[in-house]
Design goal:
Layout (H helix, E strand, L loop, with lengths): L2 H15 L2 H4 L2 H20 L1 H13 L9 H11 L1 H4 L11 H17 L2 H27 L1 H6 L11 H18 L5 E3 L2 E4 L2 E4 L7 H18 L3 H33 L1 H28 L14 H5 L2 H6 L6 H22 L6
Antiparallel strand pairs: 1-2, 2-3
Helix pairs in contact: 3-8, 3-16, 4-8, 7-8, 7-16, 10-12, 11-12, 12-13
């Protein structure tokens, strides 16, 4: 057995059996240290945005599923642990261009008061730091968990009016089809027992954003073909929207016979605890026969990375982790000063 294979197996054994710190291969310890320093610098600069996002994750039920995103990313990284121990991380200064772009986005969002943009910039800066600190090879191997961190950004409020309209149209069509006379005016549906409103919380945005997150995860861990991934994601989105319209119709239909209060309570219980689980189960069951790989087989292997000539071309330079981290700190200082100058302050 070649010496490098023995080294890899030894490192792998340590990773799985030793205490956490001892499990980290020696070549990874310094890069990880500088990576955490970079995270601390970025976190200090964008603390307001991370605080706002954390508030939404914890207190707004539309975004409760985001609490699982970091855990999923860690799980995806762990699935590649056997491959990671075979790679030596190398700082890559051009990755700072991604950090700079993300910080510019964060600055634009901070100055204009558009939280979605500022939040995206804060998360993007962390993703850029991962690339700059670990290098092209590691970033390619971990492209999925790195990219999956984008779901830390709470999104969906922007499409609520559109979803309200679509839900109302589906509900009115099914209501008339089921023999209940009804008139629609925008998001208002008038029936014999009362007027129903497709409110924001009934738009299905909570269901949709959670389903998109799940569909991306499943698409990249269970399919290898891009067309199947696109078909699965599209199907999940369409099914989510249609299902929410059916749910709205069900509430209206039940109310005609059992009363509005009973229908509202039934809708809350069924939709909150059962309906979403049923639709997810149906979506996964429909896709199950077409799965192409196991989750641990997602992405590339180190052997496949070796055959990628473009990675070798990018790795011709040897950058210092200390220099990369210092440069990142300089970027953060510059952008933070710019934010302080450009951000409007309220008067006394």
């Amino acid at each position: 057995m070649p010496p490098e294979s023995i080294t890899a197996l030894t490192a792998q054994t340590r990773l799985r059996n030793a205490p956490f710190f001892e499990a980290i291969p020696q070549v990874w310890r310094q890069p990880l240290g500088w990576l955490f320093v970079s995270f601390a610098i970025l976190g200090a600069a964008t603390a307001r945005e991370w605080g706002e996002m954390a508030h939404q994750w914890w207190n707004i039920d539309t975004y409760n599923h985001i609490l699982l995103v970091p855990l999923i990313a860690i799980w995806l990284i762990w699935l590649k642990s056997d491959e990671l121990v075979r790679i030596v991380p190398r700082a890559w200064a051009p990755g700072l261009l991604f950090v700079a772009g993300a910080l510019a986005l964060w600055l634009a969002g901070r100055v204009t008061g558009v939280n979605l943009v500022a939040h995206a910039g804060a998360v993007g800066a962390v993703q850029g730091a991962l690339l700059a600190a670990s290098g092209v090879r590691v970033s390619t191997l971990l492209a999925l968990p790195f990219a999956f961190l984008a779901f830390l950004v709470p999104f969906g409020d922007e499409i609520i009016p559109f979803l309200q309209s679509i839900t109302a149209q589906i509900a009115i069509a099914l209501t008339k089809w089921s023999g209940v006379p009804a008139v629609i005016d925008g998001i208002y549906i008038d029936t014999p027992v009362g007027l129903f409103i497709v409110a924001e919380e009934c738009s299905g945005v909570k269901f949709l954003v959670a389903m998109v997150t799940l569909a991306v995860l499943v698409g990249f861990t269970r399919f290898t073909n891009w067309s199947r991934r696109a078909l699965f994601l599209s199907g999940a989105i369409v099914l989510s929207v249609l299902a929410n319209g059916v749910r709205a119709w069900g509430t209206i239909y039940i109310a005609q016979f059992a009363g509005v209060e009973f229908a509202a309570g039934f809708d809350h219980i069924v939709y909150g605890w059962v309906f979403f689980a049923v639709i997810v189960a149906l979506t996964l069951a429909a896709a199950w026969p077409f799965f192409q790989c196991e989750p641990e087989d997602y992405g590339f292997t180190t052997g496949e990375l070796e055959g990628m000539g473009w990675i070798k071309r990018f790795e011709t330079r040897e950058d210092s982790s200390v220099l990369v981290c210092a440069s990142l700190a300089g970027l953060v200082v510059a952008v933070t000063v710019a934010a302080a100058i450009l951000t409007p302050t309220s008067g006394m």
